[in-house]
Amino acid sequence: MATFFDVVTVTSFVGLVIAFFQFSDREIKTLAYFSVAGVAFAVANQVGNAGHFYFGAALIVAGIAFAALVLRR
Description:
Elements: H1 4-23, H2 28-49, H3 53-72
């Protein structure tokens, strides 16, 4: 974990795992939705490390917002 995006995306992914086990109904459908957010974090990490700071940050915010919407329903 050498860059800013490594730390932020791994922390977001750990938060996603904790949210799945603590605050969700633990159904396969919820896991599928959370995996979409996990992919967004992985892509944000790669894009951010490639030098596209704003696009990577936008993907991180989008992943967090999507996970929050999934938990609210």
